Amino acid sequence: MKTLALAALLALAPLAPHASGRQETSGNGADHWGADYFPNIELTAQDGRRVRFFDDLVEGKVVLINFIYTRCPDACPLETARLTEVQDILGDRVGRDVFLYSISIDPEHDTPAVLAEYAERFQTKPGWLFLTGDADDIALLRRKLGLLGADEEELKDHSLSLVIGNQATGRWMRRSPFENAYMLANQLGDWLHDWKAARPEGQDYANAPELRQVSRGEGLFRTRCSACHAVGAGDGLVHVGPNLEGVLARRGREWVERWIAAPDEMLASDPIAQELFAAYGKVTMPNLRLNEVEVAALIEFLAGEDGAPVHVGDAGATEPHACCRKPDELVLTGDAEPRSASARALLPAGVSLALVLGVAALGWRRLR
Question: 63 forms bridges with which residues in the sheet?
């Protein structure tokens, strides 16, 4: 990957979007990362539709691309759950001016029908394609996107990174599924669109929340667990797993410790785990390979949250998603309509500065 100067990126002129979601290319990067670079391989979507990677999926578009396989026992369910949050935040912009693509690295097993069932399990919405194709073609695409490790020998060794980019401007960046969903949505919906969306009224740096010390357990929960679970009122997003308010009292500390440490082993024999699996859309609880110290830190965080009131739904509900339906006013839109006060609190103006400073520290990157 080559580092591109921050000043050069910020100096790029805004581009007007096509009605189709495509943007006009202007020689400021798109020509370098265009048809001569990206393999125009044929892929098949979960609905059976056949598409070409460059011509149909990325040319002139703002996209997020990740690679998964449906039998993945650990990170892929977390990735998909996180992107479900991102789609929820962006609303109907997905499929209109932002496009999500999850491509299987196990095409022999992941047929369009299997991918359709997987997408349904996570309650994904239109505009997000799950794709399969020839194994060699997909490996070539992963190399071009910088997401195929040299030491990758098995499916479970695949890169957890995802790529976001705007082919029309040549801006590309590798991100992590462990990031905050609002941050990813902000990068896709604002940064890659040259910050054209109108700022909601009342946003000011003075209103940004104060920084506080985050415990190890809370950090683990936010990066590893929050894609699927909320605690109490949570973050207002739809989650594929149950609300964890009071989970230690309901299940017992020992049961929760075993469930966090080895959910795949428990699912094979524990009746409670099997009931939860059936009740929540048969979404697999990923084995995140946490060590004893990390499990203990997570338990400590959950224990500290047990005293917090449940403001939405019933923490003991067994129906999927009973507690965390996302209010319409929290959806980010591409127009000038202001967000609610609660949404502004979740995504303050300071997030833009944090994005610029944080990414500058890591290095803005373009594909080789």
Answer: 99, 165
The crossing angle, in degrees rounded to 10, of helices 253-261 and 292-305 is 130
Q: How far, in Å, CA of 284 to CA of 314, rounded?
A: 22
Q: Tell me: domain 2-199+349-366, CATH 3.40.30.10, correct?
A: yes
Domains of the chain, residue spans = 2-199+349-366, 216-327
Q: State the burial class of residue 183 (Cβ atoms within 10 Å of its Cβ: 0-12, 13-18, 19+).
A: middle
Report pLDDT digits (tens) over 304-335.
Answer: 886 544 333 333 333 333 333 334 444 444 44
- Give the tens place of pLDDT for each residue, 165-179: 999 999 999 998 888
Does residue 97 carry a pLDDT above 70? Answer: yes
* Distance from the Cα of residue 20 to its chain's centroid: 24
Quote the CA–CA distance of 57 and 96 in Å, as a whole number: 12
Residue with tokens 């011509």: 55
Query: Which residues, listed in sequence order, are joined to residue 65 by a DSSP beta bridge?
Result: 101, 163
* Cα–chain center distance at 270: 30
- Spelled out in words, what is the top-level CATH class assigned to the domain 216-327? mainly alpha
If 0-12 CB within 10 Å is exposed, 13-18 middle and 19+ buried, where does residue 266 land? Answer: buried
> Is the pTM higher than 0.85?
no
Residue type (1 letter), 268: A
Check if the beta carbon of residue 130 is closer than 8 Å to that of residue 119: yes
Q: Quote the pLDDT of residue 49.
A: 95
In angstroms, the CA 340 to CA 335 distance is: 14
In this structure, the number of other CB atoms found within 10 A of the CB of residue 91 comes to 20
- The pLDDT tens digits of the residues spanning 285-294 come to 888 889 999 9
